[in-house]
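Continuing from the previous page...

OK, I double-checked the sequence for Non-heme iron oxygenase ferredoxin subunit against my notes and this is the correct one:
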Amino acid sequence: MTFEKVCKLADIPDEGVIGLEVGDVPVALVRRGEEVHALHDVCSHAEVKLSEGEVYEGTLECWLHGSCFDLRSGKPTGPPAIKPVPVYRVKIDGDDVLVSLSKES
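Thanks. Re-ran it with the corrected sequence; updated structure tokens here:
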């Protein structure tokens, strides 16, 4: 499994989210304290950027229709989304955040 350096930990706001491209794949990075999660940055319901949404109790909420996706599994926690979004493995190496595009689920 190959990991690619994508940003510094400080680039992601505490309890916040940023969107970036890893190669040509849109990725939303979510920080909760020192823990970082990576999800595909496209809502499975409306095909808009999840990184423009809000982090809420272990989920990332889509700004358009309010679908929430579990940060660990990518599974929707309620309607209108019914399909999960891919999640990616993350490593923290010192101050660097690394992501592997191999899907976890």
